[in-house]
Specification:
Length: 267
Amino acid sequence: MKISFSKIQAPITLLAAAVALTLTLPNAATAQTRPVEIHDRINTPARSTPLGGADSPGASAPQSKQVALTLDACSGAFDEELLDFLIRNRIPATLFVTKKWLLKNPHGVAILKARLDLFDIEDHGENHIPAVIGQGRKVYGITGEPDLLHLRREVNQGALAIQQAFGVPSHWYRGATAEYDQEAADEIRHMGFKIAGFSVNADAGASLGQAQVLQRMRHVQGGDVIIAHMNKPKGQTYEGLAPGLIELLRRGLVFVRLDQVDLAEIR
């Protein structure tokens, strides 16, 4: 019996392709679930809000001039010098606070509670746990959530702590490290929260010196969302951020809160 080599070759080729595809699938799945930062810019013009009974100073500014300053309070202390600067200069900001930080800083809470006309308080979680799902997964050495149940608790308890401390609901969420895997991001949005990304990282987790923070602030343009920190007064965030903010004001930029705008994700 004469066997055609071409008829044997086709099945072998298909088998080899199937094996190769199988070997690459785990890597593809890993890539899809790898945590990533979400980068956002302002997408809509600011609108005035009834919060505190007063409009934000930047509510009527054209969209091309608007900048959103966001400050994270993960745990640790309260950078009173930075917040005093914002209050003196009437610079509105969105503050992402954890329940852990609220419990440790009653003096800071009292200052913020008296200035809800200027500050929008939003959810940074209960215990500052990254929004990544799976046993043993970490971001920057910080262990994430073992499952969705724990993620929901982190988000909900953080929001509840803000409601109890300030009497205002949370609409935005920023996870610890500001990185998310797809499963966690989908769940947070399903819970009714918008995820707050950013476009300018001013202080890299309060690890940068004054000159580095100021240099990053000089790159800010209209539409940017700035992230910095208000829980490490021993760092140099304030020293770089304050002159950077003054420069932005002199350039004609105005500051808005996230409760006044929508954000659009950028790649």
